[in-house]
Structure formats: C-alpha cells, structure tokens
Amino acid sequence: MQRVCFLLKVRADRLDEYRERHAAVCPEMLAALQATGWRNYSLFLREDGLLVGYLETEDFAAARAGMEATEVNARWQAEMAPFFESLDGARPDESMTPLTEVFHLA
C-alpha cells in the first residue's frame, strides 16, 4: 500500500466556498474515487490556504489514471481549478505532486 501526501494552495478569497464544496461532494465523485483505488483520502486546510492531501492506494499512478478516465472527475477538476493558486494551466489533480516520505511510525 502506498501512502501519498501532497500540497496545494487554495486562494484566500475562496476558502469558505472550498470548504462548502467539500462538505457536500457528489456521490458520483465519491464512488469514482473508491472504484479507482483511493483509500483513507483526507484533505486538511490551513487558514492561509495551504491544503494537505493524504491518501492510501495500491498504485498511485493507476489510481490517478483511473480518475482521469472518468467524466465526473473532468467536471470536478474544471470546477475546482479556479480555487487554486499556481496551477500554471494544469488541473488540480495534475498538480498533486507526492511528497517524499522520510518517516513512518508503523
């Protein structure tokens, strides 16, 4: 099982709306995440907009590719892109660069 952690930056003026959107993620998106191997997926948001994502999956590349193939993800990424800083034209899911794990207490 891979543990994956990534960082993104939510625009300060969109924090409340970002929280609202994630309080009511559509069932179709939740089902797609589960079907493509995303497990124990959490997002943590700091008041300055720093977003920390964490998930577990058998194969992160395959999990990302599986989501990329879904129509619900295409819609979600298009809707979410304006919430983020510094995407340089990429979708949010394309900007999820995993951090290097340096310690894990098993």
From TrEMBL:
GO BP annotations, alphabetical order: rhamnose catabolic process
Gene3D superfamilies in the cross-refs: 3.30.70.100
A Pfam family reported for this protein in Swiss-Prot or TrEMBL: rhaM
UniProt-recorded Gene Ontology molecular function terms: racemase and epimerase activity, acting on carbohydrates and derivatives
InterPro entries (UniProt xref): Dimeric_a/b-barrel, Rham/fucose_mutarotase
PANTHER family: L-RHAMNOSE MUTAROTASE
Stated name of the protein: L-rhamnose mutarotase
Organism this protein belongs to: Streptomyces davaonensis (strain DSM 101723 / JCM 4913 / KCC S-0913 / 768)
